[in-house]
Amino acid sequence: MILMTVFGQVATYIAIVGLLLPFVLYVVARWRAAGDPQLGIKVALGYFMVTALQVLLAGTAVLLYAIISSEEDKGSLYRAGFGLIVPGALVYFSHVSLLKMTNQDAFPAVKRMLAGYNLLLTGLIGMTALIAAFQALFQKGSSHGFGRAAAAGVLVYGSAWAICGWRFGRMVLGDRSGGPPDHVVTSDKPPSAPPPAQPGLPPLGGGAFPPIHR
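^ that's the sequence the OP posted. Answer follows.
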């Protein structure tokens, strides 16, 4: 089926991007977050957190498809859905807790880039599901359950796409003042003024004046 072939090619593209993009993120984070002593551990924890979130979303989509599917035997779909949701949730929430123990609040550059990476990956999958849903909608004849699977993907990943975009927008566009970098510590004290000049004549050099004889 042509539709399944196109969907498989897009899924392969998403998998390649998901595997290669973290290395690019690390290079960019190392360039922008210079001086961050916990850069590597935050990139590693954040990568597994984002991956676990995608597994959790995939399991939710499978579970939703099992609910709206017209198949008689839905046991395998329910088992597959919970088999993705449980480990995804465990890895995601454990890594969120570990990231809270790092210095991500003092050095938020890695946090912002991981949020952008998560938005990019979720958006790619959500857009793929949206295209598949409209392809199934305008397809001649029955889509044989493919349309319901695409609809489940649109509901899950479309909602996650909107939430991730909203959070990323607040994180990045919330401060539009264009202040200094995150790792630069500024002082609120105004610069000290130079001491005022003393009134009177300048000193005339060393030595003593000769005595005055009357």
